Amino acid sequence: MAKGAGKQVGNVLVWLVLIALVVGLGGYGVTNFGGTTSSVATVGDRDISAQDYARNLRQSVQAQGQQLTLAEASQRGIPAQVQGRLIANAALDNEADRIGLSVGDERVADQIAQIESFQGLNGDFSSDAYTFALQQTGYTTSEFEADIRDETARSILQASVAGGVDAPARLIDVLMQFYGERRSFEFARYTADALIEPLPEPSDEELQAYYDENSDDFTIPAAKLVSYAWLTPDMLAPQIEVDEDALRQIYDERSDEFTQPERRLVERLIFDDEDQASEAREAIENGDLSFEDVVEGRGLGMDDVDLGDVAESDLGAAGAEVFALEEPGLVGPLPSQFGPALYRMNGILAATTVTFEEARDDLARDLRLERARRQIEALAIDAEDALAGGATIEDLAAETPLEAGRGEIREGSEDPLASYTEVREAAQSLTAEDYARIDVLEDGGIYAMRLDEELPPRVPPLADVKPEVIAGWERAATRDLLREEAERAVAQLDVGGQFGDDGSETGSADLVTRDTFIADTPEAMIEAAFEMEEGETRIVEGEADVFLLRVTAIEPPAEDDERMTNFRNALTAQTAQSLAADVYQLYGRALTDAAGISYNDAAINAVNSQLFR
Prior knowledge:
Elements: H1 2-25, E1 39-43, E2 46-49, H2 50-62, H3 70-75, H4 78-99, H5 105-114, H6 127-137, H7 141-162, H8 169-180, E3 182-190, H9 204-213, H10 215-218, E4 223-231, H11 233-236, H12 244-253, H13 255-258, E5 259-260, E6 263-270, H14 274-285, H15 291-297, H16 302-305, E7 306-311, H17 319-324, E8 329-334, E9 341-349, E10 352-353, H18 356-388, H19 393-399, E11 403-409, H20 421-428, E12 439-440, E13 446-455, H21 466-494, E14 505-512, H22 523-529, E15 537-541, E16 546-555, H23 562-595, E17 597-599, H24 601-611
Antiparallel strand pairs: 1-2, 1-17, 3-14, 3-16, 4-11, 4-13, 5-10, 6-7, 6-9, 8-9, 12-13, 15-16
Helix pairs in contact: 1-6, 1-7, 2-4, 2-24, 4-7, 4-23, 8-23, 9-21, 12-18
């Protein structure tokens, strides 16, 4: 138990040190919360220091990938999460103290020596690296070693509390019955192609009714209306001149891309020795087995033996004989880096050469884009300085190559700037008080934007979305007609009819499980099949068609199915882990309740005000 706990602690400590180093070297600095703010909370006899709270809060905020105000951090629940985590740890530390659980100095020293951040160039522990890392993170030696000692004790406590939790066999049986149960069913599919009469033209009243009943389908989501200035390499590239000499130099440097030797589509099946390979080839040539049979017999799939398209040099010593084939065929046994193998050649890809003239336009475009990116990088500095000096979005567009625009930033917006994920994400937190700043786009472009208005979700007038409304009405009307066809088929089944008697497309599935995928059918069909009783019939609607479904057999999970056996094992392990985590969490809550908590609000506020200035 102790060994396992020690390994856990080592991993945790490496994580702690790396995170702390990133924070410490990132320029945040460490504030000394002394005097009356030395403790932010007490659990039992254990204090949570302001330094620990500040370190953990700083790490959690930095993990968000952006600077946050106190209000933004509180809205995301970050301070509360950090406090909860530290309180839980303090409750466990308090219990470890109560029962006398701890580890000795030698164990602590071993843990420290194993942390890579504290090792020198020779891989041994370096006291200089140790001291430097702790200084950068605001830790004293005694604080850090105390943290290691506490973390180790908590891991031992956790293992003793939750280590023996097993998954209840009855629970696993019930879950396996649900996931592994098998159903057989038959179905008929009704599509618009089967309709004899075309759909009538919808009246204005019908369109209005459909629009009113399905207004959610046409609602435009909330958006930010922004003014912006932007410039991308694609926008700037047409203005950039390129010379022939530069293009020819690039062509020569990238000659491997434009001149491809002959290649072959090859599969390789490796054997333990040449005798096995020779026997397999003989069986294939005699027609006793196919190549696929031999692959399957070795416990492999075709993906395992597929080399794709290869050049002669890719095959080593086997290349010459494989490339001597003038048509698809089998050769071998031939050597490979893994042993004797059979090679099946399935196709010949002729050598290709793209001339400079053929490649010129693409090379010119690539060169223009590359030069445009470099120009934009330089321009970004001047644009940022202009904004910092009080220039507006409009000034930027008037005085620089950046182009002005105005549009809605949201998913699905037709505005070109809204097509960038990073812009949509930035717009979510954009407020009217924010100053415009230069940000970089994923393609090397730059932009700055200003919030003009927050647009709530809204339903556009019917006239603006009439084509979409007509298309929706037609889909709904078609499904209604197809459902009528399926209902007539149900009536025929009740008097002895068979699936497909009405000319519908039919299909069936034999002993499938809930995770089975059946092409060209809706997911709702599998869901319905596992809700129905044997012999029951049900109509299931798809996106543009309707299915008539009848369950013909219900069987328990297959006992000899290796996939289900593996699933049971994984489910058992996952359930045990989940229950162990629940037990440990409840144990921690009980310890916290028993020990009692007292908060120092002044200390918490002092830390928050220092970190979110």
